[in-house]
Amino acid sequence: MRDLKSICRIAVVQAAPVMFDKGKCVDKTVEWIAEAAKNGSELIVFPELFIPGYPYGMTFGFTVGSRNADGRKDWKMYYDNSIVVPGPETERIGRAVRAAGAYLSIGVSERDETSATLYNTNLFFSPEGELIGVHRKLKPTGAERVVWGDADKNYFPIAETPWGPMGSMICWESYMPLARVALYQKGVTLYISPNTNDNEEWQATIRHIAIEGHCYFINCDMYFTRDMYPEGLHCPDEIAALPETVCRGGSCVVDPYGHYETEPVWDREAIIYAELDMSKVPASRMEFDACGHYSRPDVLELRIYE
After folding, report:
1. Which of 131, 219, 226, 275 has its C-alpha lying 20 to 30 A from 67's C-alpha?
2. Average pLDDT per 10 consecutive residues for the chain, totaling 306 residues
3. Model-level pTM greater than 0.90?
4. Residue 140 phi, psi (nearest 5)
5. In this structure, are residues 150 and 140 in contact, taking their beta carbons and an 8 Å threshold?
6. Neighbour-count burial of 155, counting CB atoms closer than 10 A to its CB (0-12 exposed, 13-18 middle, 19+ buried)
């Protein structure tokens, strides 16, 4: 492992998107980037699908073997507010990142520039405002598969940072053991997890992964409420059935020993600041290095087809 910059000043943004409105989502992104930068942040992390929001509880009219016209209209509204990457939205975000002088991770609903397929995607930007990483979710979870397609390229991109390799797994991708190993094989020191997962079991998962990979686990979740859904949707009964708080958050940072660097934050928007001691990463691997001295490449091998 090469030498790491000793301290990473991170800002984890637990925020509510402006649901189904990509323009206003970008406005909010730019504002929160500027706010985090004022506090000296060098790495800024946003949740899964921050642009244009996570359509929790919506079926888009799909049932097994059929769909309906009203659901198609709602899907088209979501499609229209998904973004092409790169495109005008990423250019504007890039300018904000360059002004901040920080690395950025942000989740978006990506619209393919050729087909009409959507992807649940996480983006990395450099402090120069350049788009340096595009990671599409390998396998959308459950009914997400009627909205987003499987990743079809660039499966495990890594951003080389002063604090070591940075990679991302989106929400339940982190439950895929071999996907985690793919990041460990690349020496990831900063494991970025944009997600929409506010249950108790998830907190156990993220602490385990931090220990398993002996890396910092950056858990960036959403906070949003039922009344944030846009007017004019064709599924009022589905929205009405949701709890008042749809996603409670729980964003936090876990250190390479599985301890909370920052405690989970619940039920509100917040920017969570921390100074990460990067010396903990190599020190924690003294007796267990998952893809180093504690591996058996003569017995076990992971092949990645990229």
Report:
1. 226
2. 95 98 98 97 98 97 91 96 98 98 98 96 98 97 95 94 98 97 97 96 97 98 97 95 97 98 98 98 96 94 86
3. yes
4. -55, 145
5. yes
6. middle
Local structure of 277: helix, strand or coil: strand
Asked whether 85 and 131 are in contact (CB, 8 A), the reply is yes
Strands 103-111 and 43-45: parallel
Instruction: Give the CA distances from residue 260 to residues 10, 219, 253, 284, 286, in Å, rounded to whole numbers and listed in that order.
Output: 14, 11, 6, 15, 20
Q: How many CB atoms lie within 10 A of CB 114?
A: 6
Residue type (1 letter), 220 = C
Check if the beta carbon of residue 13 is closer than 8 Å to that of residue 220.
Answer: yes
- The closest alpha carbon to 56, from 169, 152, 144, belongs to 144
**The pair of three-digit structure tokens given for residue 17, joined into one six-digit string:** 């998107």
How many whole angstroms separate alpha carbon 117 and alpha carbon 94?
A: 24
User: Catalytic site residues?
Assistant: 48, 137, 171
Give the CA distances from residue 133 to residues 69, 103, 201, 229, in Å, rounded to whole numbers and listed in that order.
Answer: 36, 11, 29, 30
Query: Which of 244, 295, 288, 251 lies closest to 273, judged by CA?
Result: 251
Strands 43-45 and 7-14, sheet pairing:
parallel
